[in-house]
Specification:
Helix content is 39%, strand content 14%. It is an alpha/beta fold. It folds into 2 domains: 287 residues, Alpha-Beta Barrel (TIM Barrel); 71 residues.
């Protein structure tokens, strides 16, 4: 049955049942703080690999850092080895670095799935169960959740088996992205699969992910699938005010679950968009402690923030090469601050798209649902780097 009362992760209460999906290179402390200015929910860190965290690499330690204003410190871990996952979780708990831990089993990036990691891993039922079980045991009272995809492709679905195994291991919630790894971010998310998981697992919280581009989409998913909450990824890119819309929508939904009354969405002027972009940049400077790095990092957000607004190619090109906050001020000063919200042109899909593709897998990966010895060494290569994606 759908809950309109928020989420309960162990001793943590999340009043607004909205989760910011971890996105590599996006959901750092700066972006999380910006989004939290607009609405409630759970704001999860970028994905960090368990091996890098155990090795305490400089970048992995930065990824799990949180601002003092973040009252729920949420960290997403990626890993392929139960022992290393347990070590990483033990470290986070012992050093009081997290209040919630999420495990990523949904990454569709070929460099990860080719080594048996990400969305390919739940195919190996024994390995998946071992990783989740090790994390839950090491976490103790800290709630653990998982995020996954439907499976490798339409012929090799894993979400029902994986969901049941995660439930049995004691996770607090399961989030399902309604696409397979081979679908990548193409087409439309399959909300029916999310409803099927919800029906199969009535005794654990289930969240839906995929194609939440507006608050209306979020409420439709709640009604159509019966989930306990929703996960927002690409829909908030360049639109941190989406969380204000979601807050209003869920406040109304909590009071009137059957109401079809539409909320009044945030429709920022061009000046307000420019101000949000500048604030995002300032928060990045604080996060990186390096103005140049912050300006380079925010460049990738230009197209998302100004999607649909009549700013012209020269403006976009200039901001995509911004070098300092003063330089940014000079560029933003050329905007028509009173230009109104452009409507549908500023809405809809954004971020990664791309067509469906064959999921890259290790040799003979699909031959068995159990991990064979020859594949264990290969798996270690799936966790090279810091972010995993």
């Amino acid at each position: 049955m759908t809950s309109s009362q928020g989420l309960q992760y162990g001793g943590l209460t999340i009043d607004t049942p909205v989760v910011l999906a971890p996105m590599a290179g996006i959901t750092n402390t700066a972006f999380r703080r910006l989004c939290r200015n607009f609405g409630g929910g759970l704001y999860v860190s970028e994905m960090v690999t368990s091996r890098a965290l155990v090795e305490r690499t400089e970048e992995s330690m930065r990824l799990v850092s949180h601002h003092t204003s973040e009252n729920i410190r949420s960290v997403q871990l990626y890993g392929v080895d139960p022992k290393t996952i347990a070590q990483a979780v033990t470290m986070l708990v012992a050093e009081d670095r997290a209040d919630h831990i999420d495990l990523n089993f949904g990454c569709p990036v070929p460099k990860v799935t080719r080594k048996g990691g990400g969305a390919a891993l739940p195919w190996k039922q024994d390995l998946f169960a071992s990783i989740v079980g090790a994390a839950v045991k090491a976490a103790g009272d800290i709630p653990v959740t998982i995020k996954m995809r439907k499976g490798i492709d339409s012929e090799h679905l894993t979400y029902l088996d994986a969901g049941k195994a995660a439930r049995d291991a004691g996770v607090a919630a399961i989030a399902l992205h309604g696409r397979t790894a081979s679908e990548y971010y193409s087409g439309e998310a399959d909300w029916n699969s999310i409803a099927s998981l919800r029906e199969a697992l009535p005794d654990v919280q289930v969240l839906g992910n995929g194609d939440i581009w507006s608050a209306g989409d979020a409420i439709r998913m709640m009604r159509q699938t019966g989930v306990d909450g929703i996960v927002v990824g690409r829909g908030c890119l360049g639109r941190p005010w989406l969380f204000a819309d979601l807050q209003k929508a869920f406040d109304e939904y909590r009071l009137n679950p059957n109401s079809d009354a539409a909320i009044d969405p945030v429709q920022p002027t061009l000046g307000e968009v420019g101000a949000a972009f500048k604030l995002h940049s300032e928060l990045l400077v604080e996060y990186f402690e390096d103005e140049g790095r912050a300006c380079r990092d925010v460049r990738k957000h230009v197209a998302w923030y100004f999607k649909g607004y009549p700013v012209g190619g020269d403006f976009r090109a200039a901001l995509a090469q911004v070098e300092s906050l003063q330089h940014m001020d000079d560029i933003l000063a050329t905007l028509d601050a009173d230009a109104p919200y452009p409507g549908a042109a500023a809405e809809g899909p954004r971020g990664r798209l791309g067509g469906a593709k064959s999921c890259a897998l290790p040799e003979n990966w699909l031959d068995s649902r159990e991990l064979v010895q020859s594949q264990r060494l290969l798996l270690t290569e799936a966790e090279l780097g810091v972010s995993g994606g």
